[in-house]
Amino acid sequence: MLALFLSSMAVLGLMPELTRTGPSYWALVVPLVIASVFSLFVMLPLVVRGLINASFGTFRLVVIRKEPCQSTI
Fold first, then answer.
1. Max Cα separation, the chain?
2. How far apart are CA 41 and CA 12, in angstroms?
3. Residue ranges of the domains in the chain?
4. Helix (H) or strand (E) holding 12
5. Which of 32, 40, 63, 69 has its CA 20 to 30 A from that of 12?
């Protein structure tokens, strides 16, 4: 996301026809929104699904409770 933001800033700074009337904030916001939505709804589910379904050969998670659970029911 940082690279996308910096590239948008570079486009605005290096192309004089884009800066004649002042910087276009839409040129900064739209790519960031597209990258955020893509990473949230496409990349993140793929990464989480891969982590959940992956087998870790020497890694095992053990949950140990120090105190006995007191039921309030």
1. 70
2. 28
3. 1-15+22-42
4. helix 2-14
5. 40
